[in-house]
Amino acid sequence: MRCSRTDAYASCQLLKLRIPGVPVCCIRHHTFSIATMQKQTLAFQAEVAQLLKLVTHSLYSNPEIFLRELISNASDACDKLRFEALNNAALYETDADLKVRVSFDKAAKTLTITDNGIGLSQQEAIDNLGTIAKSGTRDFMDKLSGDQKNDAQLIGQFGVGFYSGFIVADKITVESRRAGLTKDQGVRWVSEGTGEFEVAEIERAERGTSITLHLKEDATEYLNAWKLKGVINKYSDHISLPILMEKEAWKEGENDQPGEMAKTGEWETVNQAAALWSRAKKDITQEQYDEFYKQISYDSNPPLASTHNRVEGSTEYTQLLFIPSRAPQDMFNRDKAAGVKLYVKRVFIMDDAQALMPTYLRFVKGVVDSSDLPLNVSRELLQESRAVKAIREGCTKRVLSMVEDLAANDADKFATFQTEFGAVLKEGLGEDFTNRERIAKLLRFASSTTDTTSVSLADYKSRMKDGQDAIYYITADTLAAAKSSPQLEIFRKKGIEVLLMVDRVDEWALNYLHDFDGTPLQSVAKGAVDLGKLQDEDEKKAAEEAQTQFKPILDRLKVALNDKASDVRATSRLVDSPACLVVQDGDMSTQLARMLKQAGQTVPEVKPILEVNAQHPLVKKLEASAAADNFDDLAHILFDQALLAEGGMPADPAAYVRRVNSLLI
Predict the structure, then answer these.
(1) CB of 527 within 8 A of CB of 580?
(2) Which of 499, 611, 582, 490 is nearest to 539 (CA)?
(3) Are 643 and 649 in contact (CB under 8 A)?
(4) Is the Cα torsion angle 493, 496, 497, 499 positive or negative in sign?
(5) 3-state class of 649 per DSSP?
(6) In this structure, how many other beta carbons lie within 10 angstroms of the beta carbon of residue 85?
(7) Does the predicted TM-score (pTM) go above 0.70?
(8) Rounded to whole angstroms, how far apart are CA atoms 107 and 263?
(9) Integer Rg of the chain from CA
(10) pLDDT surpassing 90 at residue 246
(11) Which residues contact 37 (CB under 8 A, 6 or more apart)?
(12) Which residues, in sequence order, are CB contacts of 568 under 8 Å at separation 6+?
């Protein structure tokens, strides 16, 4: 065998194949032509071998999911053929009626799932059935929780559904031919679920794939038509392709032998064979909706809410949309592909059609089936299509209507929605100008009068005091930090409610919501405090006098804190605290600046305003120390304490400690 570095070798190297009779150390320098080998034994990658062990030992409590996964794969193969055939009708060959067949042989103890979809070439069989590159195995294993019910859902989520066949089989044989290849370019893939598999060239007249499971002794219940039909009806009834099984009829026994069900040689469709969303709502049960949701979302829990509608007019489409009952772990990863499944006239086009749903509703699952889009629509064309824009607007309004219905009619479910998705919904304030008012009405917050995230802006307005002309709020990293903020002291003293906003998105989102129902929103940590009619004349006069009488000290503080504070002024907003930090109206808050820096973003320098309580003993001590050498140290301590009170950290913690220690000594 000659040494060289060719593309054929590169494929072997990437696949980490074990070639019989060739030492591993020699593989690096040799070429092997897979296409010309009649039969070969190859090694699973280590992660796939580990997965097989997990599947066969950890998911045994729900074995029937194997049939769900294999039928789903067969349906996907037919969808892929239909899509590729849009540009090449010859791929249908002489068999354009796509279908899935399920058959069993009691004598041989085998169960076979056959489709006439796109099929596999020999190399695709190796790539898809033997390596981690296509299976998502590592992610699957990382997510295993020990909860067998949830783990079974992960099988489909990470694309490793084929391996679930080993739950019930001790050997699997796959025979396939890819559409467009000749009959002598078929492939047979065989494995007993151990460390290796065999691949061989075969002749196969039919396009598509047959997966034959050699059942274990404890899985012979799947050699029963009634059992198989029950599993298919439970998990795969929504598959739009016909799922066929051989008919059976009762055959009387002869010579005193008992009768039995016998195959008639005819095939019958055992599922609805119609896409769930294309059927009338009155013909669909809630259980069927829930099961369909679980299939497309890989969620073991039923959805929180759903909507199923056919929209007619200038743009015609059907929407079947679901709000999950819990948020995915990566919900705040805005770069992750998300969106609903797109079909055109019941032909599958793509997963995660982002153009059909705004980013702030990326948690929504479901299907949109359009009658107007071309079958060869691309992601680029979706961005430019007027019909897509209409569908997007319609889907957005429908989802918001679902949430509004929960808010009006189901307090418990709406509370769940707020816990799981309330933060991401706020992104809509900046993304969706058209629906901003609807979104604002659906937002809920904690407040200075309640710790629960249950206060709406409308609730707040209904409780505003006479003479109050703004909705007051404060943003903070945590609820505890918000509640203890010095900025709340004057509001607490006067019994004025303040909304506590602690989601990371709040500061950004509120840049786009300046008022609610005609009442402005005002941050208590921005600008000079102005309580309008709620502040009596004596308080206003005292604040003005403090600013004048305290001016020499304020000027000294400005000089001492020139590198930290943009200004220093006396304030009436403080009652118990000596100082606090605020920023000018329209400026970035110190909290938002910290958050952006933590995210690795470059932000302009933010110099806050230091407001001091002229009546506080610490400030009076500062006034008495105006001529002392430690005035600057006291000034920095005052500033750093105000920074700590709002959740920040002194720029030089060690210097802060030294100053406090010297003051204590």
Answers:
(1) no
(2) 490
(3) yes
(4) negative
(5) coil
(6) 19
(7) no
(8) 13
(9) 34
(10) yes
(11) 201
(12) 554, 557, 558, 561, 609, 610, 611, 612
The helix (run of H) or strand (run of E) holding residue 370 is strand 365-370
Scan for tokens 């809410």, then name that residue.
305
Q: Tell me the one-letter amino acid at 232.
A: I
Task: Give dist(CA 201, CA 226) in Å, integer.
Answer: 36
DSSP secondary structure letter of residue 31 = -
Contact 466, 496 (CB under 8 A): no
CA–CA distance, 461 with 471 (Å, rounded to integer):
7
- What gap in Å lies between CA 443 and CA 72, rounded to an integer? 39
pLDDT in tens, 334-351: 777 677 888 887 777 777
Total number of residues shown for the chain: 665
d(CA 177, CA 621): 89
Question: Which element (helix H / strand E) includes 657?
Answer: helix 653-664
**pLDDT for 147:** 53
Question: Contact, 659 vs 653, CB < 8 A?
Answer: no
CA atoms within 13 A on the CB side of 489: 15
Is it the case that residue 50 has pLDDT exceeding 70? Answer: no
Categorize the per-residue pLDDT at 533 as very low, low, confident or very high, splitting at 50, 70 and 90.
low
**Residue whose tokens read 């039969």:** 39
Q: Indicate the residue type of 127.
A: D
Whole-angstrom Cα distance, residue 494 to residue 473?
15
Range from 30-34, 103-107, 228-232, 580-584 that averages highest in pLDDT:
103-107
Q: CA dihedral defined by 251, 254, 259, 260, rounded to 10 degrees?
A: -60
Q: Beta-carbon neighbour count of residue 39 at 10 Å?
A: 11
Of the candidates 147, 125, 135, the one whose C-alpha atom is nearest the C-alpha of residue 52 is 135
* 373 φ, ψ (degrees, to nearest 5): -75, 150
SS3 665: coil
Share of the chain above pLDDT 70, in %: 83
Question: CA-CA distance, 194 to 213, in Å (whole number)?
Answer: 15
Cα–Cα distance measured from residue 637 to residue 621, given in angstroms and rounded to the nearest whole number: 13
Q: What is the 3-state secondary structure (H, E, C) of 299-350?
A: CCCCCCEEEEEEECCCCCEEEEEEECCCCCCCCCCCCCCCCEEEEECCEEEE
Question: CB-based contacts of 615: which residues, under 8 Å, 6+ apart?
Answer: 546
pLDDT for residue 589: 74
Amino acid at 70: L
Contact 373, 388 (CB under 8 A): yes
The whole-angstrom separation of Cα 579 and Cα 565 is 13
What CA–CA distance (Å, rounded) separates 303 from 324? 4
Query: Does 136 have pLDDT greater than 70?
Result: no
Instruction: Kindly tell me if the per-residue pLDDT of 403 is higher than 90.
Output: yes
Structure tokens at 487: 């900025």
| Beta-bridge partner residues of 588 | none
pLDDT band at residue 157 using 50, 70 and 90 as cut-offs: very low
User: What is the torsional sign of CA 470, 476, 479, 482?
Assistant: negative
Q: Rounded to whole angstroms, how far apart are CA atoms 161 and 174?
A: 14
